[in-house]
Amino acid sequence: xxxxxxxxxxxxxxxxxxxxxxxxxxxxxxxxxxxxxxxxxxxxxxxxxxxxxxxxxxxxxxxxxxxxxxxxxxxxxxxxxxxxxxxxxxxxxxxxxxxxxxxxxxxxxxxxxxxxxxxxxxxxxxxxxxxxxxxxxxxxxxxxxxxxxxxxxxxxxxxxxxxxxxxxxxxxxxxxxxxxxxxxxxxxxxxxxxxxx
Length: 197
Prior knowledge:
Blueprint: H1 13-26, H2 30-46, H3 51-66, H4 74-87, H5 89-108, H6 115-126, E1 132-138, E2 141-147, H7 153-170, E3 172-180, E4 183-190
Antiparallel strand pairs: 1-2, 2-4, 3-4
Helix pairs in contact: 1-2, 4-5, 5-6, 5-7
């Protein structure tokens, strides 16, 4: 027999009203809906995250899906890019640069106040195949560091082209770059006459 002891807890009226509306919409009782919510929250804490973090991640995944991202096996992604580069290097680099341009335009036209920070946040949550990614802006200079032990030199070069496309749209010029297998480092400076936002 299931132990169904009940305890009283206090919650804000707006939250209880919202939960009540959800319950009605699902054709369930408030008791059942509150318990389902508690169970979900407890499960999230057990796997090392919080409901708020899970919700943010879910939102980022939905945004990525709406933006045209697809899920792909990592080794397939590497193989496809390597084959494309080996068959048509300049066209493949141009395609990645164009993708960076499109990506930056998406962020600059989305209404965000700081497209660079929006891009940084988006990339931090979507670059699953890299072990380290940083993008630091300081008075018109942006430094990017990307480490991915499984990235080939070709894939690293393609990432560089992607970043060059991004910075072209944002009004920066890439002044220093270092590309090797598993690593991309670059420094971009804001072009003269451009505003830092």
